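Most newcomers find our protein records easier to grasp once they have seen one. A record pairs a protein's sequence with a compact description of its fold. An example says more than a description, so a record of this kind follows:
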Amino acid sequence: MDASDTLAFTRQSISSNRLRCFLTTLGIAIGVAAVVLLTSFGAGLEHYIVGQFSQFGSHNLVITPGKPDTVGIGPPGVVNTQRPLTIEDAAAVADLPGVEASIPVRVGTLEVKANGRVRETLVLGGTSEINQLLFLELKHGQFLPDDSSTSPRALAVLGSTVFRDLYVDKSPLGDRIRIAGSRFRVIGVLEDKGDVLGINVDDLVIIPAARMLELYNSESLMEIDVRYSEHADPKELVASIKRLLISRHSVEDFNVITQQQILDSLSSILDVITAAVAGLGAISLIVGGVGIFTIMTISVRERTHEIGLLRAVGATRLQVRNLFLSESVLLAIIGAFVGLLLGTVLVLGLSSIIADLPARLSPFYMLAAVLVALVIGILAGIAPSSRAAQLAPLEALRAD
């Protein structure tokens, strides 16, 4: 009995029990499809986040208040540090070699009144250089002027959605608006931008950082965004920033985080999430493996007489075992490739229907799902095929 005989025997066995084999492969197919679908979301999310950060370039870092190794930003107005980050700190950092821009940032949701309308919106306090960091484009007017004084003019630039909601088609340039009760003059309107790192730039009002701090009656910044030269050494620059701020604060009560560190941390988290959801999908594969084991065990009992005939005409125990094991493996392979096709179609279909869906096929996990399905097929078929091989020919022939 050669390989072609084994394959023909296996194919005949599967075709004669179509419904049973279909239900068996369905469990494996669902498991593989689940792995493909879930890991595609994880890979897509990672690709989306990396893309969001990449649009700012790779030469950025963030200084945040708080003890070292404490990553994150608290709610506006609440800064857990011995001494807050200030506009003066940002100005001092700007003078360091290699620094192209040092931008003080404070963000909060405030009430904006204009043109007889009122709405709550996100207000960002920054400088003229925030335009370069976020790659913003103007639709009308101009951006914040370069004013490094501690009392810059009360000027505002409106996001496109804020402009439409407050003014509809009327030009806002030169108009006076009120933000948290204080008057600002509108000097510009931004082009549509969409989301940047989870912030809808279109639903944003940009004002000078110093004016934003006055609205909160505080001198504490949420962060300082730094852009440095491509020729600068990030490690040396971080060390220089730390020395400078420690000399100003007397203690290290801040964090300096490079963009690459943020990406590495996010990638590590997303890798764990992707592996976890892949594990959830693999549970379906295990269920499918149990199905194969059950079907193969029943098949051995039903085909005892057939096994006896095979042994009587000279088939060895190894050949009988391989016949049943190949059937188990073939069922797993069919289920795996059906699941692979199903998962791929679902991912591509959902991505075409929902344009913003962060889904991206992961070849690594797709291959891993197929290999796991194959291993499960082998493991599920070992015990039933070994039992078939151990049957004595005469006893098998006597079986009903």
User: Anything to note?
Assistant: The CA atoms of residues 82 and 218 lie 14 Å apart. The chain has two domains: 3-52+265-398, 67-252. Confidence is low (pLDDT under 50) at residues 70-81. The longest strand covers residues 99-114.
